[in-house]
Amino acid sequence: MITTNYKPVKTLLFTALISLQSYAQTKIGTTEITKWQYGKTGAVSITYDDGSMNQFRKALPVMDKVKVPATFFIITGSIPGSKYHGRFIGRPVKDIIKESATIPTKDQNFFERCSATGYLGYMGTIAAHTQAGSLYDAGKKEKAFKTLDDIYAKARNGELKPGYEPNDEFKQSVGSTWDDFRKDAARGYEFASHSITHPSMPGLDEPNLLWELEKSKADILAQLGPKHTFSAECPYGFENDRVMSYALKIYPALRNRMPEPWLKEIDRASKQSPGSTDKDYIQWQRGATTKTPLPMMKLWVDTTLTHTNTWLVLVFHGIDGMGYEALPSTLLDEYFQYIKSKEDKLWIATFGDVTRYMREREHGKAVATAAGNSVQVKVSHDLDSKMYYLPVTLKTYVDSGWTSVKVLQGKKSVKAKVAKDNNGTYVVYQAQPNGGVVTLTKA
Q1: Which CATH architecture has domain 30-37+361-442?
Q2: pTM reported for the whole predicted model
Q3: pLDDT of 338-356, one tens digit each?
Q4: Packed helices 125-137 and 141-156: angle between N→C axes, nearest 10 degrees
């Protein structure tokens, strides 16, 4: 028996009418700022902490070959030519050492004492500073107090060798020059602050915290210019409320935390994956370690592509045996090639540029007017143009009879191809906010 499936003619006509109504519902000139640059599905930023030498000897050539940008959070105090270096701002340390013999460490003196620990004039004290700051941030105050009491007792009793020994992150960053960074910055890499000495900031008092934050920025400004003073990462990834309250006033973009009402943050330690949210964007940080299999790293990229609101922020440290959780550069080569292969849908950009774009979109508006044979669009935002200068991507619906479009803003003119979706014929193009009216005409 043969069964024939059919729809009555009236049903077919009604379905076609509904389809035409849906197709024609978007008015000519309707314009939006796309969620990601170039109208892509998601974004990915490659970031490195500490500025260890192998990041530049081994990893950077891999990125050069694949042609992907990255952000390097660098320790500025180790670079020859830097004006500012590690120091303790406060009372003479000999007075603090003497006082520790009779007054134990407690909340009232913890920050001063922890700040001074690395500058007591003895080897090995930086490790105690780092440990105490971490314990205090974790709420283990008594253990933090004991750590400082123990190291100060050793200093008083002559149990430590005289001298100064920086932490491993600082030592492994020695070797780069500002000239090197200027050359790399000219090729599109972002260099951002990771402090002067890589201290444990939750253990610093206000003067020493500001020294590490502000003076690192001052050296970067003097050597690389204002573009590279936009982003920062406080060492060890701490999200300490007190530290963030200072750092967010100095750097517009912190990888540690960016408390925007439109941004959901998932940090490296979280096992959460991107999902449904009432926020416009998700910043999803993932940190590969020596135990992270490459298929898992690739899955992060694939997961980003299954959403339209996700910014994958990759965090790397050591490379080829140097630095924390050092990964082989051969693995990065394969991984970056995989990311590059998804570039048709992924916007690969520096940490600073993705932050700029999201804020420009959130603070921006596009007003369009269709008149005669042209569409005029005015795109603007209320942000500081010295920091927020990226072009944004606009999607504008045009007459269905247009096959290609001339886009003119100021003296810059380009020809763009049209495309179609369920709402009509549109064109996607770049425009400079606050840069004058954009005029679209049939090409």
Answers
A1: Sandwich (2.60)
A2: 0.93
A3: 999 999 999 999 999 999 9
A4: 160
